[in-house]
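Structure tokens please, single chain.
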Amino acid sequence: MHKSQEKNKKDLNKLDVIFQNDNLMVINKPSGFIVNRSETTNGNTVQDLLEKEMSFNSSEEPEFIDRSGIVHRLDKETSGALIIAKNSVSFRDLQAQFKQRIVKKEYVALTHGGISPAEGEINANIGRLPWNRKRFGVLAGGREAFTTYRVEKTYKLNDEILSFVRLYPKTGRTHQIRVHLKYINHPIFSDELYGGRKTARNDRKLLKRIFLHAEKIVFQDPANKKEILCTAQMPRELSNLLEKLESINII
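Here you go.
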């Protein structure tokens, strides 16, 4: 096991709770862990830890129990803000907020290449690739997907430009940000699935995980409809890489 994975395993021994009340909690999920348990998952998941730390009333709705209150998902290597409901009523309300696009999400990513224009929207339907069921792509018959973005900073590494980007997905398709950035030819740093095998191999000499972090999430409290803003601190391995790039780019 790689050192970063060992650290993540220790991190997941206790939930990193960034907000909670009687009806929900928001955690900062570490990279390297699958959110929901399934027949194909090996090892502990976020769901396993939730079941150890929380008690779920068996009289609650089956879907709420089956998912241990987890309202949405993040990819295994993606870190950041994840909402967990503590009861069925909150679970249903939060699910509805996602479907109605009330929930606002903000991600940060490091991508290959200089993105132009520096601000814009990617509007491209996404679907599972028929020839590779593990991957998604831009398909005419896919589901609508929108992502707006803003380039915060650019760096130079080994004669290549890298872009530090903030992204605001308006829809929640599987792998949406990763697919959209690949679609505009700016795949995410260390993305083994969409960045190209050779590129990802070189990236992972510097960063052993994908540079994608769900930094902020805004939603309504199911109890009183007041807005809640949660910010998940960027993991040290990501901020370390940015600091290294800053030092390289000092003129």
